[in-house]
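Figure caption, in words: inputs first, then the predicted bound structure.
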Amino acid sequence: MYPVILALHSLVRWLVLIALLLVIYKAYSGWFSRKTFSKADNKARIWSIILVHIEFILGLWLYFISPVIEFFRNNFKEAVHQKDVRFFGMEHSVMMLIAVILITIGSSKAKRKKTDTEKFRTLAIWFTIGLIIILISIPWSFSPFAARPAFRPF
Ligand code: HEM
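Bound structure (protoporphyrin IX containing FE present):
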């Protein structure tokens, strides 16, 4: 089970990034060009939030079955000094949780805004902050302390 969830978590990251970039692009162009908030814009918002929440659930699931986290929990005093283990036990999980909360708040705030420009502006601001946090917290293959493959086979 663990390798499958890990591979899924790795793969869904790309879908999350594509969806967020799409919504952010639409949001800035809609905001600055004063476009109408279309059904397609709303669909993109909904799909991005679904993907972000799926990724969150996979991450949470990993937190309970990962041997890395098990080691982190059982050997906290020692593990907290090991950058790679601490990254997944603390930094990655907490930062991603914050990003998911910000993106969720942004999405629901945008939904409630009265004008189309306000909807676009709200999405642009909240999603950009969320995306930056996600980009910083992903264990990229070039990361100096928690490098992970860009694509993990199932
Ligand atoms: C949008 C949110 C998230 C993204 C984009 C993301 C992305 C990633 C990526 C790319 C990996 C490396 C996978 C691999 O080794 O192939 C990873 C690992 C991991 N993530 Fe996330 N993650 C997110 C949210 C979370 C959350 C919220 C949690 C926990 C509550 C979490 C827990 C973990 C754990 C425990 C691992 C490492 C598991 C292991 O190596 O055993 N992730 N994540």
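The helical segments are 2-32, 39-65, 67-74, 76-79, 83-112, 116-137.
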